[in-house]
Design a protein that fits this description.
By secondary structure, the chain is α+β, with helices and mostly antiparallel strands. It has 7 helices and 10 strands.
Length: 315
């Protein structure tokens, strides 16, 4: 129980409570009130963590949970839902196709809302553990034609052509993102002002320079466990802005691993009550934007192939 307590403190309580107390001190909120709120937050987090740990350890009777993941009608955000399989799937083809209500995700009209989920890439589930899986899926309309937001199909067709396949295209993507609190403020920033000018935050170290490292470290481990080809991470120029790198990966794997890395980031941040934004310019003024830099290499040359990058990364 002591080990569980320390783990919870480091992942949830220490991060959340210290952030709250730091901001409370900056805004001169009374100490008794801070202690009261901190105590309630800790108790809620502790009970929730202990309860979930208990249920996640229960025997599954040989069956597994597979979370189907897909890109919704925005072309940027993601959705998911889970079904039970009688045995552990080893490849995507071991998982059956499924459907969802596309009218609720801006991917179909209400009068004909079935959208099909076709398994595309399989990963280990770092949240449920065991033999449970995460399944990245393509989306298809009721007539089995690719959904308008399904750019993976066009990318895969391009990758399978003889010319492209023989070139063995390798991709490496540098995905930048910004962390926000649920009230819309940038994580760690003063509520009624701004942090100091940019300069000390890039690859920074220290509480006065880095905000949200817990999210970053948890995401990194989740990617490694899942089998995502994450290559590294670093703090970016704007405070609360970070980057992770995926690759090098050949062909369609690059898009699959990037999108799953994004999904894992959203899920990790969800558990820490933090919001992730991929907005290219999240803050106006003299603050750096965020992007997804595409590094591309063929067998005999190094260049950026824009048509394929648009297929893979329409957002």
């Amino acid at each position: 129980q002591k080990e569980k307590l320390f783990a919870l403190l480091s992942i949830l309580s220490l991060f959340g409570l210290l952030s709250f107390l730091s901001k409370a001190r900056a805004q001169r909120i009374s100490i008794p009130y801070c202690r009261c709120v901190a105590s309630k937050l800790f108790n809620m987090a502790f009970l929730r963590s202990v309860n979930m740990e208990h249920y996640l350890k229960l025997d599954q009777g040989g069956r597994v949970q597979v979370m189907y993941v897909w890109i919704d009608g925005s072309g940027e955000t993601m959705r998911c839902k889970t079904r039970t399989l009688d045995k552990e799937p080893k490849v995507p083809e071991d998982c059956p196709e499924w459907t969802f209500d596309g009218s609720s995700t801006k991917q179909s009209e209400g009068r004909n809302s079935d959208v099909y989920l076709k398994p595309a890439a399989l990963f280990r589930d770092p949240f449920r553990g065991g033999n449970n899986k995460l399944l990245l899926c393509d989306t298809y309309n009721y007539d089995k034609a690719p959904n308008a937001t399904n750019h993976r199909v066009a990318c895969l067709e391009a990758m399978k052509t003889v010319k492209v396949a023989n070139a063995h295209p390798w991709f490496g993507i540098e995905q930048e993102y910004t962390l926000f609190e649920t009230d819309g403020s940038v994580l760690g920033w003063p509520k009624n002002g701004f942090p100091g000018p940019q300069g000390p935050y890039y690859c920074g170290v220290g509480a006065e320079r880095v905000y949200g490292r817990e999210v970053v470290e948890a995401h990194y481990r989740a990617c490694l466990y899942a089998g995502v080809k994450i290559a590294g991470t670093n703090a970016e120029v704007m405070p609360a802005q970070w980057e992770f790198q995926v690759g090098p990966s050949e062909g369609i794997d690059m898009g699959d691993h990037l999108w799953m890395a994004r999904f894992l980031l959203y899920r990790v941040a969800e558990e820490m009550n933090v919001v992730v934004s991929l907005d290219p310019k999240p803050m106006s003024g003299d603050w750096n934007g965020a992007g997804a830099h595409c590094n591309y290499r063929l067998v005999h040359c190094s260049c950026l192939l824009l048509p394929l990058s648009r297929f893979m990364f329409p957002a």
